[in-house]
Design goal:
This protein has about 220 residues and is of the alpha+beta class. The protein folds into two domains: about 50 residues; about 160 residues, tt1808, chain A (Alpha-Beta Complex). The protein contains eight helices and 13 strands. The strands form four sheets. It has a six-stranded mixed β-sheet. Strands 5-4-7 form a three-stranded mixed β-sheet, with no helix packed on it. Strands 1-2 form a two-stranded antiparallel sheet. α3 packs parallel to α8. The longest helix is centred in the first third of the chain and has 25 residues. The N and C termini lie far apart (about 45 Å).
């Protein structure tokens, strides 16, 4: 969050014009680098543009892919069955004010989803985001993404830990003032605050048998 007292001291400083000049120069260079990133990004590469830097991702581990795949299967089936919107995984470029991300899983409500054509490649802030932790991404998932997703009004953010087998569910506070932890679960069931009626056992994200049972229940 912005510290208003710091901003006031900057505005009062006789160095303000010089500060503005430096900032504008840096922002112009950042926009140029971001344009190049988008032009050069290919379907075979997973990368993000964060704070003027290109962040390359190493291939995901099997445990990561399995968890993402299980949740994707359940959420996509449910969302399509209920005509609630669109669900995408992995290579979905989310373009926010300053940064471009490729979250592990995203959900767009039907109003946003209706605006996507077959060649759509750059997406707005989704309504629901999931990140599956890895050693190389944990600081960003809990840091810049946590702040940026909230700032752009993403109403629900889940962080999944494959090793601990837990799901953290974060919900947006009033006025987009950040997330609060609604619950952290290692068992029981979890219900979305955004995808109406979507409730599954936590185990369905971590175990194939529980996943199949949850899918069968959604089919009823």
């Amino acid at each position: 969050m912005l510290d208003e007292s710091n901003l006031e001291s900057i505005f009062a400083s006789p160095e303000l014009p010089k500060i503005a000049e430096v900032l504008n120069s840096k922002l112009a260079a950042e926009r140029k680098a971001r344009d190049a990133f988008r032009r050069e990004l290919t379907p075979s590469v997973k990368a993000e543009f964060i704070a003027a830097e290109v962040v390359m991702h190493s291939p995901a581990k099997v445990k990561h892919l399995r968890v993402t795949g299980r949740l994707f299967t359940l959420l996509r089936f449910y969302a399509h069955q209920k005509v609630l919107g669109e669900v995408f995984s992995e290579k979905t470029l989310i373009c926010l004010t300053r940064n471009d991300y490729e979250p592990d899983l995203v959900f767009f409500g039907k109003d946003k989803a209706a605006t996507f054509g077959p060649d759509h490649m750059q997406f707005p802030a989704p309504d629901f985001v999931v990140e599956v932790l890895s050693e190389s991404t944990v600081s960003r998932d809990r840091g810049v993404k946590f702040q940026d997703y909230a700032r752009h009004g993403i109403a629900e953010y889940r962080i999944i830990d494959c090793d601990e087998k837990t799901i953290e569910q974060y919900v947006l506070r009033e006025g987009k003032s950040g997330y609060h932890l609604a619950q952290k679960l290692a068992g029981g069931s979890i219900e979305s605050r955004v995808v109406d009626g979507f409730a599954i056992p936590v185990a369905a994200v971590f175990e194939d048998e529980a996943n199949a049972a949850a899918l069968a229940q959604l089919c009823d």
